[in-house]
Design a protein that fits this description.
It is a single chain. The longest helix is centred in the N-terminal third of the chain and has 27 residues. It is built from ten helices and twelve strands. With 315 residues, it is α+β, with helices and mostly antiparallel strands. The two termini are 40 Å apart. Helix 1 packs parallel to helix 3 and helix 5 runs antiparallel to helix 6.
Length: 315
Amino acid sequence: MGKHCGVARHAWNWGLGLTKQILDHNRNNPEEKIKLTTAIDLHKWLVALVKPEYPWYYEVSFCAPQSALRELADAWKRAFKKTSKPPRFKKKGRADSFTIDGSIKLDHFRIKVPKIGWLRTYERLPVCSSPKSVTISRTAARWFISFKLEVELVNHPKSHPVVGVDLGIKALAVLSTGEVFEGAKSYRKYEKKLSRLQWLNRHKQIGSANWKKAQVKIARLHRKIANIRKDTLHFTTYLAKNHSRIGIENLNVSGMMANHKLAKAIGDMGFYEPFSVAPQNWVWSKPVGRRPRRPHPKGPGYMNKARLRGLYTCI
């Protein structure tokens, strides 16, 4: 699997370098512009120019570099639409992943991937259907596999027609119904342990075996802290199942993080995540009004139309 990650990373960096050269040429020569290549053209050039030079491309599945170039083309489309930043070169050991499609079979505790074979999993897998593609990634020296399955949406009965959500530092979220969701504060809990591991790694020679072992321990602790925070932030599923319309503040998180006295607490809560992990059955509605300068006298959990910045409608 490490070879698949390396081939996918090499194909991404090669395609990114080629597209950047084309963009630089078009910028310097506006009268002789070259059309930006698509993912299909990049893969054709990869097969004709790169594969004969690097024979280790044939040791892995052809889907790994092909999917990497497809993701690169999608990244450039998002960059041209100003929805995300331009893609960057990848480095070994950081967000290693690859995607494979083809004949994939699911068993209870194992999955069969083309070119690799059967892989054992720690969690039981659904055997009702077979996915068309899988993505295998490595985080903190451990491998994870993810795939998509088609399921039928179930419309749950809503107990409340509308609810307002107020994010905070003391409590993660306070609903207008009076319910309070406490934050995990995982970074504060493991801050001393993380500092201890980093302190023990201060004099190790970079690149040595002991340095690599210490880096894996630090990465695993960071992953544990992030997983605890993500698990807490999935209270949005409860909101979608029990409320028809949800009003959430549109906070300027980047501006709030500029305050060095509150940056650690805000980052530990993860204010941005509730918007990104919102279920797919949330439909964005137009903003309701502007946020008042002063807090409402009835408390932060009071739902006021003037306080809400946007509404989500749950299907």
